Amino acid sequence: xxxxxxxxxxxxxxxxxxxxxxxxxxxxxxxxxxxxxxxxxxxxxxxxxxxxxxxxxxxxxxxxxxxxxxxxxxxxxxxxxxxxxxxxxxxxxxxxxxxxxxxxxxxxxxxxxxxxxxxxxxxxxxxxxxxxxxxxxxxxxxxxxxxxxxxxxxxxxxxxxxxxxxxxxxxxxxxxxxxxxxxxxxxxxxxxxxxxxxxxxxxxxxxxxxxxxxxxxxxxxxxxxxxxxxxxxxxxxxxxxxxxxxxxxxxxxxxxxxxxxxxxxxxxxxxxxxxxxxxxxxxxxxxxxxxxxxxxxxxxxxx
Amino acid sequence: xxxxxxxxxxxxxxxxxxxxxxxxxxxxxxxxxxxxxxxxxxxxxxxxxxxxxxxxxxxxxxxxxxxxxxxxxxxxxxxxxxxxxxxxxxxxxxxxxxxxxxxxxxxxxxxxxxxxxxxxxxxxxxxxxxxxxxxxxxxxxxxxxxxxxxxxxxxxxxxxxxxxxxxxxxxxxxxxxxxxxxxxxxxxxxxxxxxxxxxxxxxxxxxxxxxxxxxxxxxxxxxxxxxxxxxxxxxxxxxxxxxxxxxxxxxxxxxxxxxxxxxxxxxxxxxxxxxxxxxxxxxxxxxxxxxxxxxxxxxxxxxxxxxxxxxxxxxxxxxxxxxxxxxxx
Lengths: 303, 329
Known about the structure:
The complex is a heterodimer. By secondary structure, chain A is an all-alpha fold.
């Protein structure tokens, strides 16, 4: 564990030096293989089905066929016209993207103060940050809605129905967690550089922007990605606070469920295609940054 | 805060497990004037985030309490401060006349069962991928996918798969099982649990994997020298190391499940079948379908009481100052 001491926690890795697979092996081989195979099947079979169903005909999906009877690649073209998925994706990217950037910036500056400066109430703030992560969204939805509605009538600013409503809400709700991520990250950074800069007379702002930020990119990326995901994955707030023009991809996907009325078969093929399209950015983000995102967990790992 | 982040929390909170011991601690007294941490404290950097959290979280929490004491519907919403004050009647109605208690029971039991079943799956997955083998990197990436998929996507695709006559039914019929409805009736409860398990076991897997890596080489060697069988070694040597990460994962996953709105909402639509009318969905419907805002706020406040106990345990377990979770074995 000593090696990790001096490293930022998200990057910490134990040297793989003395690894001996036979000694550290935990399960007999047949059992190990069985577990891996079962879990792979449990994950991959549904995923394969989604991909197959996305190029299948609606009738075939409805009848429970696993493999497409005829190939409907046009599902991937039709999704763009059936529901305004394009607009939804654009809204999601704009809202979640800006939330990620702003949230990470606010998180790193707040965390810097919380980690490096002693002040009364510091522990209370930290405790609040952890506690706020677990407050149910359904508790917040109505009062935030009421607050925005009151602002509209009091100040004449209409927020509900615009991207701003989502933007402000997501930033705030992502902040406790993003800040907590940065707090745990900054704790792992050595203080020497800052102290040297401090002696040279650098201001806190300068230390933050010239020393802390360049050293904490992995942490900043993680807190930005989690803020992005909060916005991208939200249905609760987006379903109430958006209208036709500002709705996000998550809400647009729900609309596919509503376009099936009239006794016809639901547009299963397109629904699956649209689901894959909505999931793709998130899965790519995870896989690209997997090392950072999981890195915190596997610190000291034996990769 | 959100329905999705809490689960992911430890992914990074664990990171601080390394005992960096940053000397910032609130308590140790520092000589004034010498330490930079007591001079020129840039509190203004806390301001933007702090102000946002006060306006969008703390103020609305207060509003929620006030609304729960009002008789508020869609006609009085715009001027909600003038709505008639009815004291605790909303709470009374929620407990006696609404399905609140039933929803609480559904939420709690579903959250507990789903968390409990994911535990052994996650442990098995972590044990199986702990040692290097060819293709392990790929296996690990694949294991993450169900957890990575947005809940609204998971809900949409499983809703399609579980349709009457859909692919799940077709598969079960092939095995000679005629299961009946999944998205309605009593079985919907188990469908919700099953889908929740499918999408959340990798979370346990990740936390257990991190726990396994804190087991020293010497421990493995000692067990090997003693000639311990694999099960004896697991039970008496390895599992004690996992107590911390597993209990943390249990609490967080329970909190996540109990707050989860998106999955049941998307999987079953609204109005939800009686058997999966979990508390978040009930609260949502009472607000935005029945427009009984006061009643809904009372239910939301009740949900806060519900998460208070696990949240309290969680807060106790997180060591704020070092960021280290719980007691390490």
